[in-house]
Amino acid sequence: MLTATNHTLEKLENLLKSAGYKVRYEKGNFKTGACLLQSSRMIVVNKFSNLESKILALAELIRTTDFDQKLFDEKQLAFYQQIKQTELQL
Question: Could you write out the DSSP letters of every residue in 34-55?
Fold first, then answer.
């Protein structure tokens, strides 16, 4: 289970950045708290969501998207595998 801390959010952002994605915080009325724009490799997160919602949204996107694991360092790879094996509770 992921803890709802700023450090966890930063780890998720760094993981996505290593995979070549940009994470932006914008206002919006997304139901999930984030949306993935595949063609531009950009993830837009609702900036008005609370910390836990932001973390859950990014983790769910990571869990459902396949990334090239060669892009990650050892710690990031372990974190990525942890996310992929964890069933998120929304």
Answer: EEEEGGGTEEEEETTS-HHHHH
Q: What is the DSSP string of 49-88?
A: S-HHHHHHHHHHHHHHS---GGGS-HHHHHHHHHHHHPPP
Q: Give pTM, 2 decimals.
A: 0.84
**To the nearest 10°, the Cα dihedral for 58, 16, 24, 52?**
30
Burial 53-88 (b: 16+ CB within 10 A, else e): bbbbbbbbbbeeeebeeeebeeebeebbeebeeeee
Q: Apex CA 48: angle with CA 22 and CA 2, to 5°?
A: 65
User: What residues pair up with 43 in beta bridges, in sequence order?
Assistant: 23, 36
Cα(65)–Cα(52) distance, integer angstroms: 20
- Assess contact for 13 and 33: CB atoms under 8 A: no
pLDDT number for residue 90: 45
